[in-house]
Amino acid sequence: MTAKINTELKSTIVIVGGNGDLALRKLIPALFGLNQRGLIDSVGKIIGTGRAPLDRDSYIALVDEKRKLFSGNTDAENAAIESEWQKFIQLLDYCKLEATNSAQYDDLAEMITIDGKRAPVTYYLSTVPSLYGAICENLKTHGLASEIDQVVLEKPLGHNLETCNEIHAAVAKVFDESKTFRIDHYLGKETVQNLLTLRFSNALFNPLWSNRYIDNIQITVAESIGVAGRAAFYGKTGALRDMVQNHLLQILSMVAMEPPSKLNADAIRNEKVKVLEALSPITSENVRDNVVRGQYTDGAVDSESVVGFLEEDDYKDNDGDSSKFSNTETFVALKAEVHNWRWAGVPFYLRTGKRLRRRYSEIVIEFKRQPFSLFEDDPNDFANKMVITIQPEENIRLHTLHKKPGLSGKLKLQPVALDLSVDPEDGSQSYDAYERLLLDVVNGDQTLFMRSDEVEAAWRWTDSIISSWTDVGLNVKPYPSGTMGPTKSLALPERDDRSWHES
Ligand code: BG6
For all residues of the chain together, what is the average pLDDT? Predict the structure, then answer.
């Protein structure tokens, strides 16, 4: 019998894939962090599900072991939070659940029902996306998905527009869009959210934010890690699908969107989707000029020797054959254009890759140069830039020119970076992106989640790039690990007399 939903009860979170890497590395620690701060007192139960036949105690032991491992805490640090951890694990439980085994959903129903009543549930789907449809259908059949329950979808949302549409259609049969939270964890990063305040609360920047004063915009998401541990998945995916389709395009849409009429989820997402829809298609005619694909070979990162993409160990766990991935890009750089009034003529250079020189993500807003030079030092070599660093540290620097102090007769110029970073003394800035996003899920706020039309517009654009590079046979260029990608990627802005900002 279907349980009656009681909204007075504390809510339940069910993590499907609760013993998977993401849940153990990010989701459970984030929920623990929120619980420690007293921010999710409205949650009464957290149930992990998985195919493994674990009981509650062994699940908690697993979660505890991984939390300690991934946090990197010392024994003393762990001891200091032990009582908070003991309090948190009272919320935890485990249910063995194979996504397509309908009978096992009865066990889940039993676990979340007390005296014929149950609380509203958030289902966090952190498993293979091709199962999302079957999971939602089973939840519905078992009376576990009502109009007040919510679902959270982890990426990748499909492999292309077609498979994304299939997932969206299957989920939409069960959950309304207003109850569907599509996660892009980059939107949970503090500096990415700060783009909204920076742009729309400062009279200083708002008038400058267009093709009148901005020369070009660069978005770099550089990773030093390789794909070890996920090589087989990554081999079929590549950097464009794994990073550009979601994280980089989400950042781009936050940088380029028009001011929303209100600060609510739909007003913001209406503006973001317009940017994605305004991206000029990259076609077979122009893909060679606008896209560079790369694949890492062996080299050294942080003074350690590393193997190339095709030599990664974990192919051995699969069929051992990496040659079928010889044309998968682990790096991509591209020049995009947002075809509208505000941005016509301003190139957006995007790049991302694995095994690059170091891990950092930044947005560079490069302003137009002065039309005329008053000073003997040639300021035309210099452009004002706003450099927004997303990670590893979060800060914003405005690159300006100043007088070099001193008595020398001539006015000499020197670059000075004005630091616009916020550094709260109470440490409130230091939370993980998943904490921000899970808190918003618990509070039902969709502002930082992607609406279906945004994800679809992004796929439409990246699909056209993939079919264009397939058409013209644009192959990957090798780059040694520990560099910033194939040298050809330098030519992308250089062809326009510009260059990548190197931090
Ligand atoms: C994930 C990608 O979405 O983002 C990974 O699938 C990538 O390949 C990761 O490593 C990067 O996230 P972050 O927060 O470490 O920059």
Answer: 93
